[in-house]
Amino acid sequence: MSKTYYQSINEMADDFVENYKDELNEIMKENKKKGADYIFNEAIYQNWDLNDKLHEWLDSAWYGFLRSDWCEECNTEFSSCAKLLDESNEVETDSGLWEGQDPKDAIMTQAFFTARTDLSFEIEKIIKKMIN
Asked: Do 115 and 59 contact (CB within 8 A), yes or no?
């Protein structure tokens, strides 16, 4: 039985947090007196080095995600993207991201930004649990 979309998203978020656990813990330790809201919204979210790592990681994780067991019954990246858009609760709607692309590329771009947002939200939830 294959995983659901959100099970795959949760696993990837766990992987990111595990990979950068030491860095996250150091930021939390340095800022613990400033409170949870400050730690997440300022110390972590505004940490450009960590944000760069997050975006690089999301970009590289995307291609593995399209070939993951979540997509095992899909035979192309395009069909995986269509499945992702069907299963996500928060499909990206900013058409400016794919404006001017041919329809197939536009769907793949929309799926990329949808998964990226879903994954970012899941990482945020895990980090907030770590802070509290």
From this structure: no
Count Cβ neighbours within 10 Å for each residue of 95-121 and write b for 16 or more, e otherwise.
eeebeeeeeeeebbbbbbbbbbebbbe
Residue 103's identity, in one-letter code, is P
Mean pLDDT, each 10-residue run in order, the chain (132 residues): 81 88 85 78 72 76 68 74 91 94 91 88 87 79
Q: What single-letter amino acid sits at 30? A: E
- Neighbouring residues of 79: CB distance < 8 A, sequence distance ≥ 6: 71
Helix (H) or strand (E) segment spanning residue 54:
helix 48-66
| pLDDT at 48 (0 to 100) | 65
Tell me the C-alpha distance between 114 and 55, whole Å.
14
Tokens of 71: 């997509």
Q: Give burial (CB, 10 Å; 0-12/13-18/19+) of 69.
A: exposed
Q: Render pLDDT for 26-56 as a digit per residue (tens, 0 to 9).
A: 888 888 788 777 777 777 777 767 777 777 7
